[in-house]
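Data card: per-record layout.
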Amino acid sequence: QVQLVESGGGLVQAGGSLRLSCAASGRTGSRSFMGWFRQAPGKEREFVSAISRSGIKVYADSVKGRFSISRDNAKNTVYLQMNSLKPEDTAVYYCAAKGIYEYDTWGQGTQVTVSS
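The structure for this 116-residue chain is written out next.
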């Protein structure tokens, strides 16, 4: 079983940067993709970015050019570097591991708040 723990959230001014980390433990070898999702108050959870074990990266249009995902397989850790943050990026950010068909393992989330 895989456990995920996010860290790195906080309060930042618009235009600032944050780096989120997701430390994975357990049997992570079978997880093809690790992803980041976010959920703002009153909104549904949405996809942000994902990365495969081989380094293939996918981004939502809303964060392309501003966010960068990376993965350290030796440390079982996934990172999300967030630059040029906007107030609309405010949300709880969740790390997730993809099973065979879907993202089925989730972290507890970390709050990101961007002030204008």
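Known properties of this structure: The mean pLDDT is 94. The CA atoms of residues 10 and 112 lie 5 Å apart.

See the next section for split statistics.
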